[in-house]
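Example record for the data management plan.
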Amino acid sequence: MSGLPEYLRGAVDLHVHSSPDRVPRRLDDIDLAREAVRAGFGALLLKNDMVPTMDRAYLVNRMVPDIAIYGGIVLNDSVGGFNPAAVRVALELGARVVEMPTTAAHNHKLTEHGHGGLSVFDAHGELRHDVKEICILIAHSRAILATGHLSPEEGAALIRYAYTQGIRRMIVSHPEWEPTAYPIALQRDLARYSVMFERQFLSTTAQIGGVSMEMIANAVADVGVDSTILASGLGQPENPPPAEGMAIYAERMQSTGFSPDNLRTMMVANPSHLLE
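Corresponding structural encoding:
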Protein backbone atom coordinates (compact mmCIF):
# COMPACT_ATOMS: atom_id res chain seq x y z
CA MET A 1 0.00 0.00 0.00
CA SER A 2 1.38 3.39 -0.98
CA GLY A 3 1.35 6.20 1.53
CA LEU A 4 -0.16 9.65 1.32
CA PRO A 5 1.55 12.26 -0.84
CA GLU A 6 3.78 14.59 1.13
CA TYR A 7 1.30 17.48 0.99
CA LEU A 8 -1.26 15.31 2.85
CA ARG A 9 0.99 14.15 5.67
CA GLY A 10 -0.96 14.39 8.92
CA ALA A 11 -4.32 13.86 7.17
CA VAL A 12 -7.40 13.29 9.32
CA ASP A 13 -10.14 10.85 8.24
CA LEU A 14 -13.31 11.52 10.22
CA HIS A 15 -15.24 8.51 8.92
CA VAL A 16 -13.69 5.02 8.96
CA HIS A 17 -15.25 1.63 9.71
CA SER A 18 -13.46 -1.27 11.39
CA SER A 19 -14.20 -4.46 13.26
CA PRO A 20 -15.60 -5.53 15.61
CA ASP A 21 -18.86 -4.73 13.85
CA ARG A 22 -22.05 -6.56 13.03
CA VAL A 23 -21.09 -6.56 9.33
CA PRO A 24 -17.73 -7.64 7.85
CA ARG A 25 -14.97 -5.04 7.89
CA ARG A 26 -11.66 -5.09 6.08
CA LEU A 27 -9.52 -4.32 9.15
CA ASP A 28 -9.92 -4.35 12.91
CA ASP A 29 -9.28 -1.24 15.01
CA ILE A 30 -5.62 -2.02 15.67
CA ASP A 31 -4.65 -2.95 12.10
CA LEU A 32 -6.54 0.07 10.79
CA ALA A 33 -4.57 2.40 13.06
CA ARG A 34 -1.23 0.76 12.23
CA GLU A 35 -1.90 1.01 8.50
CA ALA A 36 -2.86 4.66 8.89
CA VAL A 37 0.43 5.36 10.71
CA ARG A 38 2.38 3.76 7.86
CA ALA A 39 0.47 5.86 5.34
CA GLY A 40 1.21 9.12 7.17
CA PHE A 41 -2.13 9.96 8.80
CA GLY A 42 -2.38 12.15 11.87
CA ALA A 43 -5.79 11.04 13.16
CA LEU A 44 -8.82 8.82 12.52
CA LEU A 45 -12.35 8.79 13.88
CA LEU A 46 -13.89 5.33 14.27
CA LYS A 47 -17.50 5.06 13.09
CA ASN A 48 -19.89 2.30 14.08
CA ASP A 49 -23.63 2.56 13.47
CA MET A 50 -24.60 0.28 16.33
CA VAL A 51 -22.23 0.83 19.26
CA PRO A 52 -20.18 3.74 20.64
CA THR A 53 -16.49 3.81 19.72
CA MET A 54 -14.87 6.24 22.18
CA ASP A 55 -13.87 3.44 24.58
CA ARG A 56 -12.33 1.45 21.72
CA ALA A 57 -10.48 4.57 20.62
CA TYR A 58 -8.96 4.92 24.08
CA LEU A 59 -7.54 1.40 23.90
CA VAL A 60 -6.23 1.82 20.35
CA ASN A 61 -4.43 5.00 21.42
CA ARG A 62 -2.69 2.96 24.13
CA MET A 63 -1.58 0.32 21.63
CA VAL A 64 -0.77 2.51 18.61
CA PRO A 65 0.67 5.73 20.05
CA ASP A 66 1.83 7.36 16.79
CA ILE A 67 -1.64 8.48 15.70
CA ALA A 68 -4.65 10.06 17.42
CA ILE A 69 -7.75 7.84 17.36
CA TYR A 70 -11.16 9.27 18.25
CA GLY A 71 -14.61 7.79 18.70
CA GLY A 72 -18.22 8.79 19.04
CA ILE A 73 -21.81 7.66 19.24
CA VAL A 74 -24.52 7.25 16.60
CA LEU A 75 -28.09 7.65 17.87
CA ASN A 76 -29.65 4.56 16.35
CA ASP A 77 -32.07 2.20 18.13
CA SER A 78 -29.24 0.17 19.64
CA VAL A 79 -28.35 3.06 21.98
CA GLY A 80 -31.96 4.10 22.55
CA GLY A 81 -32.28 6.56 19.69
CA PHE A 82 -32.53 10.16 20.91
CA ASN A 83 -31.24 9.17 24.32
CA PRO A 84 -29.79 12.08 26.34
CA ALA A 85 -28.50 9.69 29.02
CA ALA A 86 -26.46 7.74 26.46
CA VAL A 87 -25.12 10.97 24.97
CA ARG A 88 -24.18 12.31 28.40
CA VAL A 89 -22.17 9.18 29.25
CA ALA A 90 -20.56 9.08 25.79
CA LEU A 91 -19.40 12.68 26.17
CA GLU A 92 -18.05 11.98 29.65
CA LEU A 93 -16.04 9.12 28.14
CA GLY A 94 -14.58 11.35 25.44
CA ALA A 95 -16.90 10.98 22.43
CA ARG A 96 -15.88 13.53 19.81
CA VAL A 97 -18.87 13.07 17.48
CA VAL A 98 -22.55 12.71 18.31
CA GLU A 99 -24.27 11.63 15.13
CA MET A 100 -27.99 11.63 14.48
CA PRO A 101 -29.62 8.32 13.43
CA THR A 102 -28.30 6.61 10.31
CA THR A 103 -29.86 3.22 9.53
CA ALA A 104 -32.63 3.87 12.08
CA ALA A 105 -33.55 7.27 10.64
CA HIS A 106 -37.03 7.63 9.17
CA ASN A 107 -35.45 9.16 6.07
CA HIS A 108 -33.13 6.17 5.67
CA LYS A 109 -35.98 3.69 6.03
CA LEU A 110 -37.97 5.50 3.35
CA THR A 111 -35.13 4.97 0.88
CA GLU A 112 -35.39 1.23 1.55
CA HIS A 113 -39.19 1.32 1.09
CA GLY A 114 -39.67 0.78 4.80
CA HIS A 115 -41.65 2.68 7.37
CA GLY A 116 -41.24 4.02 10.88
CA GLY A 117 -37.83 5.10 12.07
CA LEU A 118 -36.55 8.12 13.96
CA SER A 119 -37.19 11.73 13.03
CA VAL A 120 -35.99 14.84 14.86
CA PHE A 121 -39.48 16.30 14.37
CA ASP A 122 -42.39 15.71 16.74
CA ALA A 123 -46.03 15.30 15.70
CA HIS A 124 -46.30 19.09 15.28
CA GLY A 125 -43.30 19.38 12.99
CA GLU A 126 -41.11 20.92 15.70
CA LEU A 127 -37.78 19.66 17.00
CA ARG A 128 -38.31 17.02 19.68
CA HIS A 129 -37.57 17.96 23.27
CA ASP A 130 -35.00 15.16 23.66
CA VAL A 131 -33.20 16.31 20.50
CA LYS A 132 -32.97 19.81 21.95
CA GLU A 133 -31.63 18.36 25.20
CA ILE A 134 -28.96 16.47 23.26
CA CYS A 135 -27.94 19.68 21.49
CA ILE A 136 -27.53 21.43 24.84
CA LEU A 137 -25.30 18.59 26.07
CA ILE A 138 -23.15 18.87 22.95
CA ALA A 139 -22.93 22.64 23.34
CA HIS A 140 -21.22 22.13 26.71
CA SER A 141 -18.65 19.71 25.28
CA ARG A 142 -15.91 19.58 22.65
CA ALA A 143 -17.95 17.21 20.50
CA ILE A 144 -19.09 17.58 16.90
CA LEU A 145 -22.75 17.30 15.94
CA ALA A 146 -23.30 15.28 12.73
CA THR A 147 -26.56 14.96 10.78
CA GLY A 148 -26.32 11.24 9.97
CA HIS A 149 -29.03 10.08 7.57
CA LEU A 150 -31.61 12.72 8.43
CA SER A 151 -33.43 14.35 5.54
CA PRO A 152 -32.08 17.74 4.42
CA GLU A 153 -35.16 19.40 5.95
CA GLU A 154 -34.48 17.75 9.31
CA GLY A 155 -30.76 18.43 9.13
CA ALA A 156 -31.27 22.12 8.36
CA ALA A 157 -33.72 22.56 11.26
CA LEU A 158 -31.34 20.77 13.62
CA ILE A 159 -28.35 22.86 12.55
CA ARG A 160 -30.19 26.14 12.94
CA TYR A 161 -31.34 25.22 16.44
CA ALA A 162 -27.91 23.91 17.42
CA TYR A 163 -26.34 27.17 16.31
CA THR A 164 -28.63 29.12 18.64
CA GLN A 165 -27.32 26.94 21.49
CA GLY A 166 -23.72 27.85 20.73
CA ILE A 167 -22.67 24.75 18.79
CA ARG A 168 -19.99 25.64 16.25
CA ARG A 169 -18.70 22.18 15.37
CA MET A 170 -21.20 20.61 12.96
CA ILE A 171 -21.03 18.19 10.04
CA VAL A 172 -23.51 17.49 7.27
CA SER A 173 -22.88 13.85 6.40
CA HIS A 174 -22.46 12.85 2.70
CA PRO A 175 -24.49 15.72 1.18
CA GLU A 176 -24.21 14.24 -2.35
CA TRP A 177 -25.55 10.77 -1.49
CA GLU A 178 -29.09 10.55 -2.89
CA PRO A 179 -30.99 9.81 0.37
CA THR A 180 -29.31 12.77 2.10
CA ALA A 181 -28.67 15.05 -0.88
CA TYR A 182 -28.63 18.71 0.13
CA PRO A 183 -29.39 21.22 -2.66
CA ILE A 184 -26.47 23.54 -3.32
CA ALA A 185 -28.50 26.59 -2.30
CA LEU A 186 -29.21 24.97 1.08
CA GLN A 187 -25.54 24.04 1.49
CA ARG A 188 -24.53 27.65 0.88
CA ASP A 189 -27.04 28.81 3.48
CA LEU A 190 -25.95 26.27 6.10
CA ALA A 191 -22.29 27.14 5.57
CA ARG A 192 -23.11 30.43 7.34
CA TYR A 193 -23.77 28.39 10.50
CA SER A 194 -20.18 27.09 10.79
CA VAL A 195 -21.17 23.81 9.13
CA MET A 196 -18.66 21.50 7.44
CA PHE A 197 -19.82 19.24 4.63
CA GLU A 198 -18.33 15.76 4.88
CA ARG A 199 -18.00 14.56 1.28
CA GLN A 200 -17.08 10.88 1.28
CA PHE A 201 -15.12 8.77 -1.15
CA LEU A 202 -17.57 5.95 -0.35
CA SER A 203 -20.33 7.92 -2.08
CA THR A 204 -18.48 7.49 -5.38
CA THR A 205 -18.50 3.68 -5.21
CA ALA A 206 -21.02 1.58 -7.12
CA GLN A 207 -22.48 0.02 -3.96
CA ILE A 208 -23.56 3.43 -2.64
CA GLY A 209 -24.87 4.90 -5.87
CA GLY A 210 -21.84 6.04 -7.79
CA VAL A 211 -21.84 9.78 -7.13
CA SER A 212 -19.55 11.26 -9.76
CA MET A 213 -16.30 12.96 -8.82
CA GLU A 214 -17.48 15.89 -10.94
CA MET A 215 -20.57 16.29 -8.74
CA ILE A 216 -18.44 16.44 -5.62
CA ALA A 217 -15.95 18.80 -7.26
CA ASN A 218 -18.71 21.12 -8.44
CA ALA A 219 -20.26 21.18 -4.96
CA VAL A 220 -16.93 22.10 -3.39
CA ALA A 221 -16.41 24.82 -5.99
CA ASP A 222 -19.89 26.23 -5.30
CA VAL A 223 -19.96 25.96 -1.50
CA GLY A 224 -16.27 26.39 -0.73
CA VAL A 225 -13.09 24.58 0.20
CA ASP A 226 -13.18 26.15 3.66
CA SER A 227 -16.48 24.42 4.50
CA THR A 228 -15.56 21.00 3.11
CA ILE A 229 -14.10 17.89 4.70
CA LEU A 230 -13.04 14.99 2.50
CA ALA A 231 -13.40 11.66 4.34
CA SER A 232 -13.18 8.07 3.16
CA GLY A 233 -16.25 6.36 4.69
CA LEU A 234 -14.34 3.15 3.95
CA GLY A 235 -13.71 -0.11 5.77
CA GLN A 236 -15.84 -2.48 3.63
CA PRO A 237 -14.05 -5.66 2.47
CA GLU A 238 -14.83 -4.99 -1.20
CA ASN A 239 -13.41 -1.44 -1.18
CA PRO A 240 -9.85 -0.16 -0.79
CA PRO A 241 -8.68 0.26 2.80
CA PRO A 242 -9.30 3.76 4.16
CA ALA A 243 -5.69 4.94 3.81
CA GLU A 244 -5.49 3.87 0.18
CA GLY A 245 -8.95 5.27 -0.54
CA MET A 246 -7.98 8.70 0.76
CA ALA A 247 -4.90 8.77 -1.47
CA ILE A 248 -7.04 7.84 -4.48
CA TYR A 249 -9.61 10.46 -3.49
CA ALA A 250 -6.95 13.16 -3.34
CA GLU A 251 -5.56 12.17 -6.73
CA ARG A 252 -9.00 12.25 -8.37
CA MET A 253 -9.92 15.57 -6.79
CA GLN A 254 -6.63 17.03 -7.96
CA SER A 255 -7.46 15.87 -11.50
CA THR A 256 -10.64 17.98 -11.36
CA GLY A 257 -8.61 21.12 -10.69
CA PHE A 258 -8.08 21.35 -6.92
CA SER A 259 -4.58 22.28 -5.83
CA PRO A 260 -2.49 20.47 -3.23
CA ASP A 261 -3.15 23.41 -0.90
CA ASN A 262 -6.92 23.00 -1.42
CA LEU A 263 -6.68 19.30 -0.66
CA ARG A 264 -4.59 19.88 2.43
CA THR A 265 -7.25 22.29 3.69
CA MET A 266 -10.01 19.70 3.18
CA MET A 267 -8.12 16.63 4.40
CA VAL A 268 -5.87 18.05 7.12
CA ALA A 269 -6.72 21.57 8.29
CA ASN A 270 -10.53 21.48 8.35
CA PRO A 271 -10.99 18.14 10.13
CA SER A 272 -8.16 19.01 12.54
CA HIS A 273 -9.95 22.25 13.38
CA LEU A 274 -13.13 20.34 14.24
CA LEU A 275 -11.29 17.95 16.52
CA GLU A 276 -9.44 20.74 18.31
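Summary line stored alongside the record: The beta strands are 11-16, 41-46, 68-70, 72-74, 97-99, 144-146, 170-173, 195-200, 228-231.
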